[in-house]
Design brief:
Blueprint: H1 2-10, E1 15-34, E2 37-50, E3 56-58, E4 62-68, E5 74-84, E6 89-100, H2 102-109, E7 119-129, H3 136-139, E8 141-149, E9 152-160
Length: about 160
């Protein structure tokens, strides 16, 4: 029995691409050192949603509330709203980490474009909606694979099967 459970929990999950977002973001609002760490806020100005399981738009008014740790790792906590192509509203809370070398982090902070494979940026989103046809979003687990450009964040959301 223990061999079965060990084998089961050691099996890597399968992922299925669900949809992607491309969000336009504003400049970094650097609050500086706070009791929780170095706080930054980045407004989410809008964007697009496209993919096999969801299409729509990102509404303006969200933001990414970040903490920059002493080692440069960035804790991401983004909250925003998607309006599906059918008009349904979806609340998104997306948390994750962006990890890079000090050189890459400095370049990104200056607004420079860097190769997407030069840093690690992954998220774990949660969704809420009243729309019955989209309840699958609330019952699934997702992993986000993210990339940052000077004025955008792109994230591919993959459902864990």
């Amino acid at each position: 029995m223990n061999d079965d459970i060990d084998r089961f929990i050691a099996t890597a999950p399968t992922l299925r691409f669900a949809f992607a977002i491309k969000a336009r973001v504003g400049p970094i609002q650097d609050l500086g050192p706070t009791a929780r760490g170095h706080r930054r806020i980045i407004d989410i100005l809008g964007g697009e949603v496209h993919g096999p399981r969801l299409t729509g738009e990102i509404l303006p008014g969200g933001a990414d509330w970040q903490i920059v740790r002493a080692d440069g790792t960035i804790e991401v906590v983004a909250r925003y709203t998607i309006r599906s192509s059918a008009g349904a509203l979806i609340y998104v809370q997306n948390e994750g980490l962006r990890v890079a070398s000090p050189d890459i982090l400095a370049r990104m902070s200056r607004g420079e474009a860097v190769p997407f494979d030069s840093y690690h940026f992954r998220t774990a989103p949660r969704f809420e909606t009243a729309e019955s046809s989209l309840k699958w979003l609330e019952r699934a687990t997702f992993v986000g694979v993210a990339a940052r450009t000077p004025d955008r964040v792109a994230i591919g959301f993959h459902e864990v099967l």
